[in-house]
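Why does this matter for the project? Reviewers at the last site visit asked to see concrete outputs rather than summary tables. In response, this paragraph embeds two records directly. Each consists of the residue sequence and, immediately after it, the corresponding structure tokens. Nothing has been edited or filtered.
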Amino acid sequence: MPRVLFNRLRTVLSHAFAFFVLVSGGLFVPALAAPQSLSMSLASPGPPIQGQPIRLILTILPPPSTEHPLHLHVYVDGRMILMTTAKGPNAAVTLPPLAKGRHEVEIAEADIRTHRGMGQMSTMEGRDNMDMGGMDMGGSHAAKMPESPAPKHFLTRMTLLVKGRTAP
């Protein structure tokens, strides 16, 4: 009789654990390691020009996949301007036109479900119409909250020197 009780208990506990993992969305299942290498380069030769979108190519190793994508937040001068999810070794992002001068571009990994920086406690919850390159992340919150600084754990950084337009 005790053996039957033990088998039933084991079955119930294994089902309870499976249900917990399913309900939690895998939040407690270890995530894959961060990329070992993420490089960023301009898609076109020559310096970026004021008033024109800037296309960047990202190279990620080991490469993410459709099953294990890499969610990235792109910051310009400390302000998040866009998000992208890489599903292969190369990804392209297009920055909005930037003013003439020096700009810092930084890329951070984030959790695709919560948008929290990996290893960070920051969150975008409570933000109202946060400017992210035209993406409306608005909510029904009445009070506007100040933007928090960009996370400190960046995968890569690049300094862009945007040139002014030349007269025709």
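We now turn to the second protein, recorded in exactly the same manner.
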Amino acid sequence: MSDRHGEAPELGRLVNHVGITVSDLEASAAFYRDVVGMEIVRCGTKPTGGEWFDTLTDSRGAVINGIVLAAEGFALQLVQYFEGGEQRPMTGHSRVGNVHLCINVDGLDQKHAEIVASGKWNPTPIVDLPIPGQRSFYVRDPDGVPIEFSCGPYVAERTGVPPDA
């Protein structure tokens, strides 16, 4: 893959980025930086919008700003609407169309202990998953988006799938 400027950017693999609309850009960026461990790589300098954004998103009169964070080849774009957005988040693992992010960590017990010690984010207990060797726990970001921390086999590894699938 390549972009119009030549070689493919480091973050430009099959999935270019995942975007999440947030209610407080600074609070969410702090969560993904401090709790998840991502690095801020791009910040919008001022709110933007216009016909280009309205056309792409089927919005009308949207004014937004964004921050991009990255870690290990994964990019997360946070977007806050200042105009034209719906303010009430409808998040949750059981809601159709909602996403959750799963973050691989080597020291799952240590990560869990750090979050418990912070007194924030209300982490679930660590559980053993049906995939042998995989364990995880969840927290919610400032807008309630479920964030899973996991250790064990990478979920995209081809295991137990017939060769012709």
